[in-house]
Amino acid sequence: MTEEELRKKLDALRIEHRDLDAAIDALTLSGAGDQMQLARLKKRKLKLKDQISLIEDYLIPDIIA
Question: What Pfam families does the record point to (predicted)?
Fold first, then answer.
């Protein structure tokens, strides 16, 4: 993948992560949320966070001073 493709994927992952966060909040506040569904959404959100971190680490290299 090119750097531009990685940046687009990163943006898409961040949007999905925010959407999942909003969905989790809505289910939690409504009180009608199924615990299994909440657990699945939270697990998916964590996977997205890991993918975001991997891409960010690749795009932003560590600079040793």
Answer: DUF465
Residue 17 lies in domain: 3-58
Angle of helix 3-30 relative to helix 35-59, nearest 10 degrees, comes to 160
- Model confidence over 26-48: pLDDT tens digits? 998 888 768 899 999 999 999 99
10, with CB counted inside 10 A (0-12, 13-18, 19+), is middle
Q: Is residue 65 assigned to a domain?
A: no
Residue type, 62: D
In a domain, 26, yes or no: yes
**Domain-embedded: residue 64:** no
